[in-house]
Write a structure and sequence with these properties.
four-stranded antiparallel beta sheet; 10 helices; single chain; alpha/beta; binds magnesium ion; 259 residues; binds adenosine-5'-triphosphate; Rossmann fold; 2 domains
């Protein structure tokens, strides 16, 4: 079954067609990677798939429902969640509060209900705490729940972003360069973690990365973007051997680039 159908997605910024006719049919439980040089349009695709940018043309359907024109919180409510290329955390808040806030940010009535601390609210808070801990556990962050986000090592901050993304119970998780700035052992750990959460949380995943040694072993399929256009797609094996991909991207020393 296909969970997400993206057709002819394009966006224009002034004279620049940052994404040009992007198509993706994502299967349930599938892991698709999007690769390509800096400025190719990868993050812009994620911004359209999360409602931050409205596409100039094209369609996005999640389980048959059209999402174009909805607000970012509505994309999150319907089951698309993401992490960011540059880590976005509340640095002066604790680990546990960072994850909690991910849930409240995506609901409309929460400010009011959190001002009225009713009994239901207290029960709700307890449930929220339990849920946060159930996410911190598999991400090896449970024993750091009370630390401030800014005091976490970099790898932990990346995993905290993952916990935040999982808090809204996504069906589809978008990961924008999850191993940027990591060293080899951390990259290997993150690969294992992505594979594990994909299975345990029954997620479909779209992954952007420049580290080919991270992407290729875990991706079912790879799409290669260059100047907004899809220049190649297929299994990791096929894409890596494609002369067009080698010329535009892989030949340029990008394999382990940390852009
Ligand atoms: N809001 C915007 N206004 C104008 N141009 C934009 C905007 N957002 C993105 N762009 C442009 O669109 C192009 C694609 O940018 P994008 O961030 O999607 O690239 P990317 O593939 O994610 O690159 P990287 O690998 O460096 O992260 C770039 O030329 C960028 O400058
Ligand atoms: Mg990017």
């Amino acid at each position: 079954m296909r969970i997400l159908e993206v057709k002819n997605l394009s966006i224009q910024f002034g004279g620049l067609r940052a994404v040009d006719d992007f198509n993706l049919s994502l299967g349930k439980d599938e892991l698709v990677a999007i690769i390509g040089p800096n400025g190719a349009g990868k993050t812009t695709i994620f911004n359209m798939l999360t409602g931050i940018y409205r596409p100039t043309s094209g369609s996005i359907e999640l389980e048959g429902e059209s999402l174009v024109g909805l607000k970012p919180y509505q994309f999150a409510q319907r089951g698309i969640s993401r992490t960011f290329q540059n880590i976005r955390l509340f640095s002066n808040a604790s680990v546990i509060d960072n994850v909690k806030m991910a849930a409240t940010m995506h609901s409309k009535d929460n400010l009011v209900s959190s001002l009225l601390r009713t009994r239901t609210m207290v029960k709700h808070e307890r449930e929220l705490d339990e849920k946060v801990m159930s996410l911190l556990e598999p991400l090896n962050l449970a024993d750091k729940a009370d630390l401030l986000a800014k005091n976490l090592p970099y790898g932990d901050q990346r995993r905290l972003e993952l916990a935040r993304a999982l808090m809204t119970d996504p069906k589809i998780l978008l990961l924008d360069e999850p191993v940027a700035g990591m060293i080899t052992t951390e990259i290997e750990e993150m690969a294992e973690l992505v594979v594990r959460i994909r299975k345990d949380f029954e997620l479909s995943i779209i992954l952007i990365e420049h580290h080919m040694n991270f992407v290729m072993p875990i991706a079912d399929r790879v799409k290669v973007i260059d100047f907004g256009k899809t220049i190649s797609e297929g299994t990791p094996d096929v894409v890596q051997k494609d002369p067009k991909v080698i010329e535009a991207y892989l030949g340029g020393g990008y394999q382990n680039a940390n852009a």
